[in-house]
Known about the structure:
mainly beta, Jelly Rolls, four-stranded antiparallel beta sheet, 12 strands, 53% strand
Amino acid sequence: MPITYEPIATTTANGSVSDISFTSISGSYTDLILVIAAKVGSGSYNIRWRVNSDTGTNYSYTTLSGTGSSASSSKYNNQSSPFLNDYGYLDTTWANMIAHFMNYSNTTTYKTVVSRSNNANNGTAAVVGLWRSTSAITSIDLTCIFGATTANFSAGSTFTLYGIKAA
């Protein structure tokens, strides 16, 4: 049986927001796919994510990145919000990202998020994140940030959430 991606919601930034939220996510899918095409006006930023407004240190993540001539990896434990992207920073060039929230509605397992990003100026990156909770994911919050500095997503940046239909 083919896998069916069903669009749940799309948000397009107008240039004046640094946060994007998807709320009231139905539990009727097996997985969620988040597709992002975004950039910022200046500087280099990451996208951090949180689910269900959980600001505790219940997240961990591992980054893998490369430029074609070098590669690196890092591991972070007990974080309050992990990255969706690492070396594939958001900057003034359009970057593409896709994040897979696996088993998001399962209430017996922790939630794994695998994301991939690329940017022509900065290379590519893969990030594997873990939310250490058995709660179903009902909301996803994204923030454009580097260190403690936030930036607005450029006008036209698009964020689309899809649900994978149960077979």
